[in-house]
Specification:
With 158 residues, this protein is mainly α. The chain has a two-stranded antiparallel sheet with strand order 1-2. The N and C termini lie far apart (56 Å). The protein contains nine helices and two strands; from the N terminus they run ααααββααααα.
Length: 158
């Protein structure tokens, strides 16, 4: 049985949990009801939710807090969004900005809309976008996210 240093952060707890999931010996002990293995498992999961990390930073790290047997649905949605943006090649900084959804200035939104309009009228870009070109999809996703978030301080309604 290996002893690990207690995690200092939720991210370290997540890393240790991921390591234990991959450890066949630990998994067998956990499933067999080994007291030490179960205590370690519970302690690491308790650490995930005990740090004052922002929900966005936790989502980017792939951390979805559990409440008993249930996951927090808002955190899960954010984590899935972060994973999707990562798969598109969107940087961590841009992902954080999108997930925080704080909004943009009216001038920034105007510029983003103008960029989108120009690129959608560009036959070559449109062809790439419609063909699911990774870079075109990445750029259009960022633009669409910013436009949908809208102007800082303004509430969107249906």
């Amino acid at each position: 049985m290996s002893t690990q240093t207690p995690p200092a952060t939720s991210a370290e707890a997540r890393t240790q949990i991921d390591g234990l999931i991959a450890d066949a010996d630990f998994s067998q002990r956990l499933l067999a009801g080994d007291v030490a293995a179960n205590q370690q498992w519970r302690d690491l999961h308790a650490r995930l939710g005990s740090e004052d990390e922002s929900a966005v930073d936790a989502a980017i790290a792939g951390i979805v807090p559990r409440i008993g047997d249930f996951v927090d649905s808002d955190s899960k949605r954010l984590a899935e969004g972060a994973a999707w943006m990562r798969s598109l090649g969107i940087s961590v900084g841009t992902t954080r900005e999108i997930l925080k959804a704080e909004g943009y200035t009216a001038e920034e939104i105007k510029s983003i809309k103008a960029w989108k309009d120009r690129h959608m009228r560009d036959a070559e870009f449109s062809k790439k976008f419609l063909a699911n070109d990774q870079e075109a999809v990445r750029l259009m996703t960022i633009a669409n996210a910013a436009i949908s978030i809208g102007i800082k301080g303004e509430r969107k309604s249906f």
